[in-house]
Design brief:
This protein is α+β, with helices and mostly antiparallel strands and 236 residues long. It has 3 domains: 48 residues, RNA-binding S4 domain (Structural Genomics Hypothetical 15.5 Kd Protein In mrcA-pckA Intergenic Region, Chain A, Roll), CATH 3.10.290; 94 residues, Alpha-Beta Plaits (2-Layer Sandwich), CATH 3.30.70.580; 75 residues, Alpha-L RNA-binding motif (Alpha-Beta Plaits, 2-Layer Sandwich), CATH 3.30.70. It is built from 7 helices and 18 strands. Strands 6, 9, 10, 11, 14, 15, 16, 17 and 18 form a 9-stranded mixed sheet that branches. A 3-stranded antiparallel sheet has the order 3-2-5. Strands 1-4 form a two-stranded antiparallel sheet. Helix 1 crosses helix 2.
């Protein structure tokens, strides 16, 4: 229902529109949450019928972002039989993993309640970097680095060029900008070897750091801002 005659005191207007009682309205005005035509209202101010009144209550960010170290043996989605998934071992409810990390691998995965991340981070056209530390069962061949970086044919598909750093006779780091299912394992098999251990240590600017398996930390501050900015997501 339209409020009574104008001009009227702003606290009376807020009471008539059901936003707050007069006392609550005065409290909102004192805290600087009420604006008239884009300017902060003052106690006792009167408004006309054409004035634009807004209440801008400060709210906490409703989104949660976590860096989680998934242990070996835990699945990220769709557990079968007696398998456990991340939510079974996590003490925070309402968040979900963005993307996958296979059961036999461990390392960094992003957990959130922000559905916008899924397409932004996982879209095949996005080209966001993910870095892995890999140990193989056998020694790496002399041509391993060149062949991995140039693209490996796996089941009719040739992987995109990547960057590989050899760290030892059977250990390397690799940076991918795509995410085919079991991609690194399949690439290594195609080059006549097998993965013994695979750990994801970075997603874009988010690093695993010193997190132990099963541990998590909140993403916040500059680290989170850089991450969301790179994804084209605005907080708020």
């Amino acid at each position: 229902m339209e409020p009574e005659k104008y001009p009227m005191r702003i606290n009376k207007y807020l009471a008539h529109t059901g936003i707050a009682t007069r006392r609550e309205a005065d409290n909102l005005i004192e805290k600087g949450f009420v604006f008239v035509n884009g300017k902060k209202a003052v106690l006792g101010q009167t408004i006309s019928k054409t004035d634009k009144v807004e209440v801008r209550r400060k709210q906490k960010n409703k989104y949660v972002y976590l860096a989680f170290n998934k242990p070996v043996g835990i699945v990220t989605h769709s557990p079968q039989g007696s398998e456990q998934e991340i939510k079974d071992i996590l003490d925070i409810k309402g968040v979900f993993p963005v993307g996958r990390l296979d059961k036999n691998s461990h390392g960094l995965i992003i957990l959130t309640n922000d559905g916008r991340l899924t397409d932004k981070l996982l879209n095949p056209e996005s080209g966001h970097e993910k870095e892995y530390l890999v140990t193989t069962k056998d020694k790496l061949r002399s041509s391993f680095k060149e062949k991995m970086e140039g693209g490996v044919k796996i089941e009719g598909y040739t992987t995109k060029p990547t960057r590989v750093d050899i760290l030892g006779e059977n250990k390397f780091k690799i940076i991918l900008t795509e995410g085919k299912r079991h991609q690194i394992r399949r690439m290594v098999v195609a080059l006549f070897n097998e993965v013994r251990e695979l750990c994801r240590i970075r997603i874009m600017n988010i690093k695993l750091g010193n997190l132990k398996p099963g541990e998590y930390r909140y993403l916040e501050g500059d680290e989170l801002s850089r991450f969301l900015t790179a994804l084209g997501i605005l907080q708020g």
